[in-house]
Amino acid sequence: MTTETETPDAVRAKPLTMAAALNSAMRDALAEDPNVVIYGEDVGPLGGVFRITDGLTRDFGEQRVWDSPLAESGIVGTAIGMAMYGMRPIVEMQFDAFSYPAFEQIVSHVAKMRNRTRGRVSLPIVIRIPTSGGIGGVEHHSDSSEAYWTHTPGLTVVTPSNPADAYSMLREAIRSDDPVIFLEPKSHYWMKESTERAGEPLPMNRAAVVREGTDVTLISYGPTVAVALATADLAAEESLSIEVIDLRSLSPFDDETVGASVRRTGRAAVIHEAAKFGGYGAEVAARITEREFFHLAAPVLRITGADIPFPAPLLEKYYLPNPERILHALSTWEWDD
Amino acid sequence: MSLTVETRATIGLPDAEPLRLIEETGTVVAPKLRRGIDLPGADTLLELYRRMVIARRWDTQVTALTRQGRLSTYPSARGQEAGEIGTVLAMEAADWLFPTYRDSIAVMTRGVPTEQILSGFRGDWHCGWDPQEHRTAPQATPLATQALHAVGLATAARLKGDPIAVATFIGDGATSEGDAHEAFNFAGVWRAPIVFVIQNNQFAISVPLSKQTHSRMLADRAVGYGIPGFHVDGNDVAAVYAVVSAALARARTGDGPTIIECLTYRVEPHTNSDDPSRYRDSSDVELWRKRDPIERLARYLESEGMLGDELRRSFVQEAEDAATAMRDTLNAEPALDPLELFDHVYNVERPALREQRDALAGELDENGSARS
To answer: What's an example of a GO molecular-function annotation for this chain (chain B) (predicted)?
Structure first.
């Protein structure tokens, strides 16, 4: 696997939505490598229900980008065979909760093939999953399922929070010889920003400090990065300096970047949309506690979704972590002044 | 070229009576009852016989070694040799096989060395062979999952324009799994060059076929997917070989998938830890033991003067030599390196795994006896 990624001038030139950045990443990968194929539900002429694959069937033909039957286990299961024959399939699960029919294929086969064959068969598959809430989706359209995947050895799990990362991380995921679960925060698909960043893009397995601060480290990923940044803005008004980390990679976990930040601030909280119990935040809190306990001035907090199924659309605002709730949680710590 | 085709042929239900070319008595079925399928040539039949004799002896030896505790478990394919060997010998070297846990003799007939096949049942690694080298996927333990892998690989070959075909085995119980349905359906829609060989041995551990399906027979499923289906006497290796050969040839020339149900019987327990006396009548087992696929072919070959005592003895000796060699191999302790556990999970090294590997290395250094 290589870690170099390039952002072509076309992508750098103007502000792009995350949807367009993801589309560009797949377009460039299709043009570069004839073994890259894309299939899934409605990804053909429609361009996917979120239009992420817009125009790809038109430009690359039905042999490269096509609509499959509506069956997620079949989509992932066949991708395994394709990867065994030298293809680099990118498959789309239409929504987070619709990936569950593919659970067995992902957990028992995608994740284990390399290990069970003693390293002889790698599966360069990218499983794209639009994830999380915030769009008023009806039931089963807003789950945050990351803990299922990160608990599974053999999977690489990444999630971008902005268009520039969406492009570079998807390119890198497609080049990876290991299978990648690529979680796309669907509430950010239409987020527009310049993809121009100084220097080379960060490799997808590294976390990024997206805002520097001195008092608290807020650890976020995917859709909660924007929430953490908004929290930092609000806190600055009260002279509380918050450092925000965008994990980017959920598995592997970048202990180095997170640890360095926590050693500076002495306080850490992790934010995610998924339910708290057994959630990804528990792993983050445990890792920080195991490694940085003597640098901590307070317990690691988790500000997450409640331990309930994701609510109906009109109620989701009561469920999702927001800056006020996060600041309130931080205020429960004992502070010296 | 598009993956899917708009035109659909009208496909009828398969004949209920399983196709056979050689009767149990060893006589050849009359041409008008062979449904246009020719009896394989003399050399092929003799080779099918030889390979079944070797496979039976191999299977018997593995079962014995399992009883002695050399393997943790072994699902025998005794009595199902016709489906196993008939399918594998119908395949070309470039074709791919996707086997299940009961298809060890098929993997053996593909040319995989014994200690590599039995690595999983012996317990030294899940899959012991190189799937790319032998064009044989790891044996699937989850049911019907491998059928989707097989469809994917077959479709990739079609997209690349390679004229190969893929065969996969599915048990009767596994046809109840959703993945079997998805595999049949994807294969039909994508015209995948694949042959699904359903080894209907009538039992899924203890559950008889009548509790798996209300359909007349499993081959009937094919019509619903727009795929040709065949019902074959799974103890007639000549019929299995002929039908699978024709289906593989169709697949290689772009005519799409085929579902073949081989009607047979699991005369052995599910594995060594099963107790069939709790769920089936031993008289059924005895009936099916008499329908032995190897003896059936032998009767035909002898009646045609193609198999005399001398040739038969030479095959038995060959099988015996192979069994002896296998016993010696499996009686040696497998080489284990506990630190290898961390080597193959990812292509890229992870710090967390390195830490855990180092911790295990420390334990092993403290207690050298743990390392073998």
So the answer is: oxidoreductase activity, acting on the aldehyde or oxo group of donors, disulfide as acceptor
Dist CA B200 CA B339 (whole Å)? 41
Contact yes or no for B196/B219 (Cβ under 8 A): no
With beta carbons less than 8 A apart as the criterion, state whether B85 and B237 touch: yes
A270 DSSP β-pair partners: A219, A302
Residue B199 belongs to a domain: yes
Chain B residue at shortest CA distance from A62: B2
**What tokens were used for B166?**
């893929």
Same-domain check for residues B58 and B115 = yes
CB contact under 8 A, B186 and A69: yes
Helix (H) or strand (E) holding A40: strand A36-40
Q: What is the DSSP string of B219-272?
A: GGHHHHTT--EEEEETT-HHHHHHHHHHHHHHHHTT---EEEEEE----S-SST
Let me know if B142 is exposed, middle or buried by CB neighbors in 10 A (0-12, 13-18, 19+): middle
Interface contact flag, B347 A122, Cβ < 8 Å: yes
| CB-based contact, A248 to chain B, within 8 Å | no
Q: Could you tell me the domains of chain A?
A: 9-193 (3.40.50.970), 208-331 (3.40.50.920)
What's the confidence (pLDDT) of residue A4?
Answer: 43
Burial of B252 (0-12, 13-18, 19+ CB in 10 A): middle
What is the CATH number for B264?
A: 3.40.50.970
Query: Per the domain annotation, does B3 fall within a domain?
Result: no
CB A158 within 8 A of CB A145: no
**Which of residues 10 through 49 in chain A touch B, CB cutoff 8 A?**
37
Q: Give the confidence band of A198 by pLDDT, cuts at 50, 70, 90.
A: low
- pLDDT at site A2: 39
The proportion of chain B whose per-residue pLDDT surpasses 90, expressed as a percent, equals: 92
Is B14 inside a domain boundary? no
Determine contact: B183 vs chain A, CB below 8 A. Answer: yes
Does B345 contact A at CB distance below 8 Å?
Answer: yes
Whether B182 and A68 lie within 8 Å, measured CB to CB? no
Same domain, B116 and B260: yes
Shortest distance, CA A34 to any CA of chain B (angstroms): 10
Query: B108 with B120: CB under 8 angstroms?
Result: no
The answer to whether A73 faces chain B, any CB pair under 8 Å, is yes
B271 and B138 together in one domain:
yes
Is B260:B244 a contact under the CB 8 Å cutoff?
yes
Whether residues B263 and B149 fall in one domain: yes
Above 80 in pLDDT, residue A258? yes
The parent domain of residue B173 ranges over 31-331
* A92, β-bridge pairs: A40, A128
Number of domains composing chain B: 2
The residues of B carrying an active-site annotation are 266, 270, 279
pLDDT at B139 over 80: yes
**CA B204 to CA B174: how far, in whole Å?**
8
Based on the domain organization, do B258 and B313 belong to the same domain?
Answer: yes
Q: What is the pTM of this model?
A: 0.95
DSSP per-residue letters across B100-114: BTT-HHHHHHTT--H
Same domain, B91 and B240: yes
Angstrom distance (rounded) from CA B126 to CA B147: 19
CB contact under 8 A, A119 and B343: yes
According to DSSP, the β-strands at A192-193 and A16-17 are antiparallel
Q: Are B77 and B84 in contact, with CB atoms under 8 Å apart?
A: yes
CA distance A212 to A146: 26
CA distance B235 to chain A (A): 30
Do B142 and A108 count as a contact with CB atoms less than 8 A apart?
yes
Q: Are residues B165 and B57 in the same domain?
A: yes
